[in-house]
Design brief:
heterodimer; B: mainly alpha; 8 helices
Chain lengths: 315, 207
């Protein structure tokens, strides 16, 4: 077999094996690549942070995603919840998928372990699973009265009787709706909640969906977005360097690599837990895999051009 | 009458909903309130219908010993067990339902999604060739974006993430917006066709 053929026809089992090593090794032996924040992630952080310490403002997290996309989206779930619990921001959680309700339980219990003072129905309220077919009445109904539209929390308790609802009436009390999903669910919130009631909407998406949101970001229909594991890694870092240090957000500081590195020296133990670093550890593997895929593409193209040249010579 | 009545319902409710959006008044607000209550009542019946359909399809597959009927047994057993533990012990953290979710759903779902990386790598290597100018542009853009979306790109030069942002914010945005406008116009046209009774396939059967 010619050299050009050989480099174009590497057995796929070899590719899979190399890829497996490229994923596993950086996860086991952490490389520690730096994380650089981008505007859509910074905007979302700033928006959520604006509700810090307020009793009449909350954020609504919609967990309409299933376990298939957890490796990318779960670090987002944890990072946003940690931000809220750290900065005393009220949180509502909801899911229009049954699996999403279980993910809410998982995420809340994992973050609550580190924040024992946070109380259910006081600092946060889990609306739980609401059938997909009720999403329209709930999205529209919350514009008038959240308690009436959603009715009960995940434990079946009437919302109107819960302490967290004392100062919460409708979308005027929702700082931002954060839709975390591997679908175009965020656009429903834009169509029904933002267009009619003006509530701010942001999204956390899988990387393959991330390119879809740029028109909405430019028009302001999404106030921020987290794109794939990279978005989650950026948010983790912003929570570490600002929320964990009780520091006001500053774009200039977030992008000053020296200042960011200095913040990491004085972080509390919670920030060093594996669960709050998952996305950044995962990004090490993702970086290596991206380079590997580029290498394979270039290799295949070198073979292709050698082939083409040989064919021209033969003519 | 079997066809006329559903068509009339669709036309009247469709027009009312359009009117509600464009004519703000007490009546239209009351209409929305009425509509939302009805939707909340009717909607959950879809779940009952879904469960019935799932059981019906898989029961028939098992009965006929259709190809891969063994998977249908797994589906039905999983449905019964998950539903039963959910009803008996609830679905909160620490219950058997959550144990099933964490130990079956999560690893199985994540495994399926993770396999994509292997297929993408293999497919990109085998099929991504600079055969034409368009393919070359796509190839270069893909390599820049792949590097720009990880920190290695920034480590090489800040130009890579900057160009990545430009690709996403300009050519990508323009293409996506064009597609979105096309889809929006298509949806409007289809909705009008349904409301006016031109498109009737949702009624089932032949015209």
């Amino acid at each position: 077999m010619k050299f050009s053929d050989r480099i174009q026809k590497v057995d796929r089992r070899i590719i899979y094996m190399i890829l497996l090593l490229a994923v596993v090794l950086p996860l086991v032996f952490r490389i520690g690549f730096k994380t650089y924040t981008t505007t859509p992630v910074e905007d979302l952080y700033r928006h959520i942070d604006a509700a810090a310490g307020r009793d009449d403002m909350s954020i609504l997290m919609d967990f309409t995603h299933d376990p298939g996309v957890l490796p990318e989206l779960y670090p987002m779930d944890l990072a946003i919840l940690r931000h809220c619990f750290e900065r005393n921001i009220k949180v509502f959680t909801i899911s229009f998928l049954p699996q999403g309700a279980a993910i809410i339980q998982m995420a809340l219990s994992e973050v609550k372990e580190d924040y024992p003072n946070i109380e259910a129905n006081v600092d946060y309220c889990n609306f739980g699973f609401k059938p997909w077919s009720t999403k329209l009445p709930i999205m529209l109904g919350m514009g008038d009265d959240i308690a009436e539209a959603v009715e009960t929390n995940s434990e079946g308790l009437k919302l109107e009787n819960l302490p967290i609802m004392q100062n919460m009436k409708n979308y005027d009390n929702i700082q931002v709706v954060v839709e975390i999903s591997g679908s175009s669910m965020g656009q429903f919130w834009v169509t029904y909640a933002r267009a009619k009631f003006g509530v701010d909407v942001a999204v956390g998406l899988t990387a393959v969906m991330a390119a879809d949101v740029y028109p909405y970001l430019q028009s302001g229909q999404f106030v921020g977005s987290l794109g794939g594991l990279k978005g989650a890694a950026e948010y983790e870092q912003l929570v570490d360097i600002f929320a964990m240090n009780d520091e006001e957000f500053s774009k200039k500081k977030a992008r000053d690599i020296k200042w960011v590195a200095a913040q990491y020296k004085e972080l509390p133990a919670i920030a060093k837990l594996y669960k709050y670093n998952k996305a950044r550890i995962g990004m090490d593997a993702q970086a290596v895999v991206h380079v590997l895929i580029i290498f394979f593409i270039v290799l295949g193209n070198i073979g292709y051009f050698l082939d083409q040249r040989a064919q021209k010579k033969n003519k | 009458m079997k066809r006329q009545i559903p068509l009339m319902i669709v036309l009247i409710l469709g027009l009312l909903f359009v009117a509600h959006v464009f004519i703000p008044s007490r009546i239209s607000a009351d209409y929305l309130d009425w509509f939302l209550k009805w939707t909340k009542v009717i909607g959950p019946f879809a779940i009952v219908l879904g469960v019935f359909s799932l059981v019906y399809v898989h029961y028939n597959k098992i009965k006929r010993k259709a190809p891969t009927w063994g998977y249908s047994i797994v589906t039905l057993v999983a449905l019964v067990i998950t539903t039963a533990v959910g009803f008996i012990w609830g679905i909160q953290e620490g219950t058997p339902y959550m144990w099933i979710f964490k130990n079956f759903n999560v690893p199985l779902g994540a495994t399926m999604f993770s396999l994509l990386a292997f297929y993408i790598a293999s497919a990109a290597y085998k099929a991504f060739r600079a055969r034409s100018i368009e393919a070359t542009v796509l190839l270069i853009a893909a390599i820049i974006v792949m590097l720009g979306r990880v920190s290695i790109g920034q480590a090489i030069t800040h130009w890579i993430p900057d160009i990545t942002e430009w690709i996403l914010n300009v050519p990508n945005l323009a293409a996506k917006r064009g597609i979105a406008l096309g889809v929006g116009l298509g949806m409007t046209a289809t909705s009008l066709k349904i409301m006016l009774g031109i498109e009737r396939s949702y009624l089932g059967g032949k015209d």
